Amino acid sequence: MRPEAQTRLAASAIWLIPLLWSVNYFVARKAPGVVEPYTLACIRWGLAGLLLSIHARAELARNWRVIAAVWYQYVALGFCGMVVCGAWVYLGAQSTGAVNIALIYSASPVLIAIGSVIWLHERMRASQVLGVLLALTGVLHVIVKGQWGALGQVQFVAGDAWILAATISWAAYALLQKVWPSPMGSTARLAAICWGALPILLAGTVWEMMQPATPVLTLQAWVLGVSVALFPGVGAYWIYGWAQKMLGASKVAVTLYLGPLYGALLAWLVLGETLGWHHLLAAALILPGVYLVSRAEAGMGSR
């Protein structure tokens, strides 16, 4: 394929990335009563890790001593990126909607920017500060359901807290990868991180299986697990990396702003969730905030 054709294909493919990520929100809402959170995350990242390992097997074999020397880094990254941002998201989806998940999660680049200032001593411009304030106000607006004047009457749900914890953990995941650079390519490194997460996910899965109310793994459970492994896992990741090489990071970063829109539309069309005015106002705060943070300092934590 000619370079011009590859560029056009990449420019078209980036619009699929937020759609593939949104599959995770859909599966998260469909999973309760079908498959438990740690089990679902274990299927997702176990299968994704296997596929990524097959693809990067030569590089992993060359670097196995490097991986073994810093094994704790991969466990920590796996905990932040696959356990908290995997199983805990599914825990949160048991009591909060897909729209809330998409909106709260969309603020992760803002938390990465804050962490970069505090932890990595990077400077934050005035426009970034404004973006941080806008985005965090939007997240809080979602959590309080827009009822700032009657906070005492708001019924807070545990699901929003789980998703907020996952958002913070994603920021930690991104920052730790800057603190702990790796000689391996992105595919091999992600595969190693998957294997770092698996012992924790397997332990959680065993614990879930021992509970009397745990549902038996059915075909539907496996379909959900394979779906999140292939679409938001390997598929979105591969397209994002390939398109970034073809188009550059700044053009592919548009997917950060489309994620909440895709997630909300999917929740409305497929899950039948209602969109409230507080969701729309929150989006009007979060998305410009993320834009200001990301534009002012390109590369400060896109996902």
End-to-end gap: 28 Å
| Strand fraction | under 5%
Number of helices in the DSSP assignment = 15
Largest sheet: none
Shape from CA axes? Answer: globular
How would you sum up this structure, described in words?
The protein has 303 residues and is mainly α. It has one domain. It contains 15 helices and no strands. The C terminus is likely disordered.
Short description:
With 303 residues, the protein is mainly α. It is built from 15 helices and no strands.
Secondary structure layout plus pairing:
Blueprint (H helix, E strand, L loop, with lengths): L2 H11 L3 H14 L6 H19 L1 H6 L1 H6 L1 H22 L5 H8 L2 H12 L6 H18 L14 H22 L6 H24 L9 H29 L1 H4 L2 H15 L7 H20 L7
Helix pairs in contact: 1-12, 2-7, 2-12, 2-14, 3-6, 3-11, 3-12, 6-10, 6-11, 7-10, 7-14, 8-9, 8-10, 9-15, 14-15
Features:
303 residues; mainly alpha; 76% helix; 0% strand; globular
